[in-house]
Amino acid sequence: QVQLVESGGGLVQAGGSLRLSCAASGRIFSIGAMDWYRRAPGKQRELVASITSGGSTNYLDCVKGRFTIFRDNAKNTMYLLMNSLKPEDTARYYCNADIGTTIWSAYNDYWGQGTQVTVSS
User: Fold this and answer.
1) Pairing relation of β-strands 115-120 and 91-100?
2) pLDDT tens series, the chain, 121 aa
3) 73 in helix, strand or coil?
4) Strand locations in 1-121, DSSP E?
5) Helix or strand or coil: residue 19?
6) Which residue, among 20, 6, 40, has the nearest Cα to 112 in the 3D structure?
């Protein structure tokens, strides 16, 4: 019933920008923390950025100052603004969210299917 759908990936040159979106839909009562992960072939999955329901953020060290995570709670949507992209940012980016479906529900963890970001040098 609940799903997360990422969009906004693509191919960009080094130094360029992309904005990723993650839209949650379905039966949603509340959304807690939301996160962006990424995984490049042959590399371990990384937590890129996270944002709490109250707006507190954390970032992977190598993206600090370049990426910005934010959310629009009214739209159940989270974004990742990626500036000054580097080839090493190339990866598939995944949305993760803690979602409660009723007032009585504990949060469950949901994942999107990802969106590809490729940065050329």
Assistant:
1) antiparallel
2) 899 999 999 999 999 999 999 999 999 999 999 999 999 999 999 999 999 999 999 999 999 999 999 999 999 999 999 999 999 999 999 999 999 999 998 999 999 999 999 999 9
3) helix
4) 3-7, 10-13, 18-25, 30-39, 46-51, 57-59, 67-72, 77-82, 91-100, 108-111, 115-120
5) strand
6) 6
